[in-house]
């Protein structure tokens, strides 16, 4: 059986390196894995009053896609040493009841930044969030694409060979991790 992965990039920017990193993952995924990407741009700011009236359709769609996925691939930028608000906002919407969609979900994290640490600090904040929503995030390999401006070519292709290898390894591990968790 294949692995159905939902990919979420935490940047709204058209030329986003993290969107390009997700595109690279789609290119590098192992046989039997399917990665669908979800655009979080239309998600409104979280408001619990709105939620009490019913989830907005785009949020409901994301919640259902998270629930239906075998695993998640979250590609996070780093903003001020943390996860961008737009990504945290999307996670906050999805994390509310009923039947909290992140619960027990296998996940992998990666990220690209123009800085030297390649989203290290944001990824560790994201792992902390994952603890509370009970996502099971893979530990290895850590894919932290630093100096992103030089890691992609003019056509948007990831040309950092080390990063390409790590992404391929991460996705193989994610397929294995998902199968192991499913077996229980
Ligand atoms: C508000 C803001 C804060 C940022 N903070 C960091 C940071 O803490 N660490 C870092 O490496 N880069 C930081 N950057 C630079 C981002 O790595 C860079 O803008 C990157 O291109 C964002 O990802 P994207 O290309 O997917 O949009 C920041 C950028 C913005 C706009």
Structure commentary:
The structure is a single chain. This protein has 184 residues and is of the alpha/beta class. It has seven helices and six strands. Strands 1, 2, 3, 4, 5 and 6 form a six-stranded parallel sheet that branches. The model has no long low-confidence stretch (mean pLDDT 97). The structure holds flavin mononucleotide (FMN). The site of flavin mononucleotide has 14 residues, from helix 1.
Unreliable stretches, pLDDT < 50, 5 or more residues?
A: none
Q: Helix and strand string, N-terminal first?
A: EHEHHEHEHEEHH
Average of pLDDT: 97
Percentage of helical residues?
40-55%
Q: What proportion of the residues form beta strands (DSSP E)?
A: 15-25%
Which geometry do the CA atoms define?
Answer: globular
Total number of beta strands: 6
What is this structure, in a nutshell?
By secondary structure, this protein is α/β, with parallel strands linked by helices. It has helices at residues 17-28, 48-53, 57-68, 85-94, 120-133, 148-151, 161-183, and strands spanning 3-9, 33-38, 71-75, 106-112, 136-137, 143-145.
Keywords:
alpha/beta, 6 strands, binds flavin mononucleotide, 16% strand, 44% helix, 184 residues
What's the arrangement of secondary structure elements?
Elements: E1 3-9, H1 17-28, E2 33-38, H2 48-53, H3 57-68, E3 71-75, H4 85-94, E4 106-112, H5 120-133, E5 136-137, E6 143-145, H6 148-151, H7 161-183
Parallel strand pairs: 1-2, 1-3, 3-4, 4-5, 4-6
The protein binds flavin mononucleotide (FMN).
Residues 11, 13, 16-18, 77-81, 113-115, 148 line the site of flavin mononucleotide (FMN).
């Amino acid at each position: 059986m294949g692995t159905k992965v939902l990919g979420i990039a935490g940047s709204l920017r058209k030329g986003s390196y993290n969107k390009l990193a997700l595109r690279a993952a789609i290119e590098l995924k192992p046989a039997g894995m399917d990665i669908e990407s979800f655009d979080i741009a239309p998600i409104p700011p979280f408001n619990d009053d709105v939620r009490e009236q019913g989830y907005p359709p785009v949020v409901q769609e994301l919640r259902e896609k998270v629930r239906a996925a075998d695993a998640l691939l979250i590609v996070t930028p780093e903003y001020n040493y943390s996860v961008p608000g737009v990504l945290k906002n999307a996670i906050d919407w999805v994390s509310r009841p009923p039947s909290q969609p992140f619960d027990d979900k296998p996940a992998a994290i990666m990220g690209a930044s123009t800085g030297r640490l390649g989203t290290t600090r944001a990824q560790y904040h994201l792992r902390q969030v994952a603890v509370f929503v009970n996502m099971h995030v893979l530990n290895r390999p850590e894919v932290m694409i630093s100096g992103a401006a030089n890691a992609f070519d003019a056509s948007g292709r990831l040309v950092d060979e080390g990063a390409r290898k790590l992404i391929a390894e991460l996705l193989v591990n994610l397929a294995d991790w998902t199968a192991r968790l499913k077996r229980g």
